[in-house]
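Can't attach files on this board, so I'm pasting raw text. These are the components:
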Amino acid sequence: MNLHVSRLYLLLLFGLGLAAAASLHMGLRIYDPATVLAALRGGTDSDALIIVSLRVPRTLVAAVAGAALGLSGLLMQVATRNPLAEPGLMGINAGAAFAVTFGIAHLGAASLLELGALAAFGALAATIAVFGIAIAAGDAARPATTLLAGVTVAGMLASLTQLLLLIDETALETLLFWLSGGFADRGSDLLRLGVPSLLAGFLGTMLLAPALDALRLDDDSARSLGVRVSTVRLAALALGALLAAGTVAMAGPVVFLGLVAPHIARWLQPKPAMATLAITTCLVGAIVALAADIVARLIVAPGEAPIGAVLALVGVPTLIALLRQRREAVL
Amino acid sequence: MSAMAAGNRLALLGLVLGAGAVLAAGLGSSFLPPGRVVAALAGGGAPMDSVIIWTLRLPRVVLAVLTGMALALAGALLQRVTRNPVAAPSVLGVTDGAALGVVAFLWIFSDDANALTVSIHWQPLAAMIGAFGFAALVALLTLLDPGGRSPLRIILYGVALAALAKAAVTLMMILGPIYRANQALTWLTGSVSAAHWSDAATVAAGLALSIPALVALRLPLRQIALDAESAAATGLALGRTQAALLSLSVLLTALAVSQVGAVGFVGLVAPHAARYIHGQFAPGYLVSTALIGGLMVLGADTLARIIAAPLELPAGALTALVGAPIFLWLLLKGRRAHG
Amino acid sequence: MADPFARLRAASAAYNRTRALDDVTLDLPAGAVIAFCGPNGSGKSTALRLMRGLHPPLRGTVEIAGRALPEWTPRALARAVAMLSQTPEAPPELTVGELVMLGRFAHRRRFAGPSDADRAACQRALAATGTEALRDRPIGQLSGGQKQRAWIAMTLAQDAPRIFLDEPTNHLDVAHAFEVLELIRRLNRQEGRSFALVLHDLNMAMRYADHVVLFCDGRIAAHGPTRQVLTEERVQQVFAIRCRIVQLAGEETPVLVPLPNASAADDAGLASAAE
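---
Top answer:
Structure tokens for the assembled complex are below.
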């Protein structure tokens, strides 16, 4: 690791700390640092209650979800060699949404933890279906096949979800909250789904990193370096799916972050090795998620703006600015 | 891909589409068997049948087929020009721009009592303005880009602006009146249920106008499958061809979504289905793409009418349900030819 | 040289600010087979790409057949000069016949199918490269050598009097490499077509080129008739190797024998073995 990378990490960590601190302070009520510190030290007044039971979990969920989604997007983009790849393309969000809708409409699921488990199950089932089809269609190592299987399964599941919603409107109320995705009122017990998947995904990425670096070459060159191309590609996609499944269980389908965070990370670190790029992407994802969440609280106060919309408002100008600075949008 | 000649494959697809249209025209609250449909179409049959077919059912069937064709063609052009198999009309910001146009229209022209202050017939115009506005923005950003104009950058700008439009739509729907939100939701799903002959005629005219352009562009469309250098070395004016194909793709998408709303999936999958069934370099590839697109939307709309009858569902909710299983089957079957 | 088929005038070129060609002036004589030789990164391919209008010059001008490059329309230029780049790509399901027909782009009429002339040109190109039997095979299923010959066929089908080939013997075994270069010479001698080729094999250049341009560090180290350019001293100087040129009994063309230079052999600890 050279000086430049470590300085970048320090900067990003500083930014993450700042964003997290801001996330604890800002909202419908804006607290001063003394109040926040008192609450974190175990204060018991009503302000402290709000901070500890609402703001802290929300901040944690946003940071974990942002890191996981960014990393998931990075894995998908590298594994499919497609800069447009993101978790949503693999049917993950659609699978989670269908499972949750079905659970609410027909299985009587109601608690957030139940919904989270359903979402994780749906996400993983959709991913397995996508991989199954890609493998059965012959060469699973061909990225285009996997992507096509992904978008097709995603489209079908989204269609089924819409059908369920059209036929059974009573499910709509609970669902709209969940389906819009977000970090508010998600509860800290959901972190039990998100944190392990982030850790597992991150460790897995570190283990795969050398092979993924080789995968940036063409398949034959990678193979001749001793990389099992299909295995590595499937493993990377599986890790990406796991990360996204953990997030969707916590925060519902959050779009756009998985696409934009890796692109920002690549801009910060133009010629990165996979391992360092993964860390940068996690940090960037977390910062962007926190920033978007803060904006979501403020922009239509006293209401909350949907996180997907805010992410777009925050992420799009960034993405455009990045595109205008970089000559080549390479992987 | 069978050994059948390209012409026969097209004829077969056309036949299936024709039969599907006759069947679809017969389905509804009162079922008409194909024989009576054909009689009514030919100008004979019972007067009542004629009225049902010509004024109620046929505009819808024709509109479904034509919009499916336009979307499928738009997708085929886009995938070739960007050399990206997951490029779909929605990535260029066109669909979401149209959605923004419609939602803004509903928002601006509603009074306090939730009634529209202008005729609803202006809604397609609003969609058109939104679609072209966002397409123009994407083009502008790309042209002003100091780092070159590769197709990938066009897509990334498109994706970015599409997300922005989607965000604006979401915010407007939250802040706007709830009744308008529902109306906008129906539009966003895409539906052909309110079809009139005038809608179908608009799409038909647009498609007819695009045919000479498609014919003129058919050779460049093949040539662009080569890498950029080889394409240029064989005489293709690369930049101009890309611009022409992208513009045509935007036009076709805007044409379709302004009439029926944001029907998804067709533009993404119909070109691939045509690739597997027909071959993307066999003569008539675009024709087969169009036929398959038409079949997909027609199938979706027909299913939407009968699956929860008497309730009618928006066709856009079902295009994926109709198209996905067929496409997955093609994907699995195609492994010998393309694996 | 009265009528150069391509001409660079004080041309410089760069990739992302890395200078690749530095103030080069070059006239390519018409009606000859010209080889571009030189170490990797010396500017050979860049010179070809510049002359074919695939890369814009930073400074200087490019002329083809006496007309400045910007005056040509893309189609007219493609009818005047064909070029095969180093790593061409096409969808794997494209058949050889379809690929070769793509070479006819600049000749085809906009609103009609292929004409008899188009079909005849494709047929000639397939026959000349020995790829007739592969006509209906998807290029994704070809071997490296077959694919290279299919691409050469596409370039020939373009029917241009001037042809640029960037490493045409890439992926080819010795027999096929000879075949392609014999074909180039035949097309040159019988049909008067001019060729400019990037060649790495100096012996192939020695045998088949009428004229050699030797590149070094983005500049031209030497150019002129083959035997005058490919001398022991020049090759040693440009490639920083040792080299001997020997005449084999019964062979008209001399053979160039490259040898590792003394210091490189020293580095590898092989000095004694080499002597």
